[in-house]
Amino acid sequence: MRIQLAATTDIVCDSRVRKIAGSLSAAGYELTVTGRVRGGQPSLKAPYQLAWLKCFAHRGMLFYAEFNLRLFWKLLWSTADVICSCDLDTLPACTLAAKLRRRKLVFDAHEYFEHSVEIVDKPWVRWVWRMVARTCIPQCHLCYTVSASLAQELSHVYHKPFLLIRNAPVLSKVPPPLDSREGREKVLWYQGAVNAGRGLEQVIDCLPQLPGFELHIAGEGDLSLALKALVERLGLQSRVRFLGRLPYEMLQSHASQAYIGLDLLDGRSKSYYYSLSNKAFDYIHAGLPSIQMRFPEYEALQREFSTGVLVDDLNRSTLIEAISTLDHPVRQTSCREQCLLARQHYHWGEEEKRLLEWFAGLFPGADDSSPPSRDRD
Questions:
Q1: CATH classification (class only), 186-345
Q2: What is the pLDDT of residues 152-201, one digit of tens each?
Q3: Total-model pTM
Q4: Spatial CA neighbour of 358 closest among 132, 93, 20, 47
């Protein structure tokens, strides 16, 4: 079976896309992943084919329109049996191509896109994406997303069953360090997109009241320049490090040496409220105690494994109290022990089983030794 998988994200740093592509490829599917060129041609070795689309526009609706036009033209001539859209921003091109070529259409909702924080205050843009979702999602043969609560919400809104594939990491054979180590540097660690609603401005504002702590940020995004300006204005250059985008292996190495992980979100966005971020599991697998929001998925996770603390808001006093709570050897050791337990339960090996079962179900009764029949080109 041939699969075309499309995403607008930076595939080099998108662990979800790479895990799914790797699992499908290892299962014997012939896979092509199409992504976006940012800057120079990306360098990535993978056991599947890679294709890159270069756009003149780099952001906003103009970028999405151009990317989907280029993607549609590519998919129109593809001989794939299945077209998989990674998030709503690739779904228009994938839906139209799948419809015209009579292919199976799969939708992986990375987030509640039409309620993301970047467009929550832009009614016209939200309306456009809502229309895209209402038009395209009913055409899909398989839909899945990142959290149980988001799957329930999307199933209710779009009257289409959404299944669950958590964005948990591959389980490493080498466990992270367990002890809190008195000499450990007190690094507040953040990895991920540096965008609005991630609580980074608020944490930087807290640093003057947190002597001995540093903040390390691994990632890039719309707020990168503004955060660097804020750090300079507050005179915190020696206590805040911007590491840029890092490969996943380097992220986990840094995280395992950090003191407290940050997974903060603005509750105004339904996308954030229903989320279960990949960094939540990345921190667990790195043995890193973390601060998360009191949202449904994080509450459920903390009830099962107490790997950190929950906060109700992003106020300065709330964040300082949470950091102070985790700044204790006994609490640190307890959270790290819970991380060791949780990583045995939440890992990609468990998610992969469902993923492969669902893809196999797209062509029930097909002979594994030969791909399903296709239109002759």
A1: alpha beta
A2: 999 999 999 999 999 999 998 877 776 655 556 899 999 999 998 999 99
A3: 0.90
A4: 20
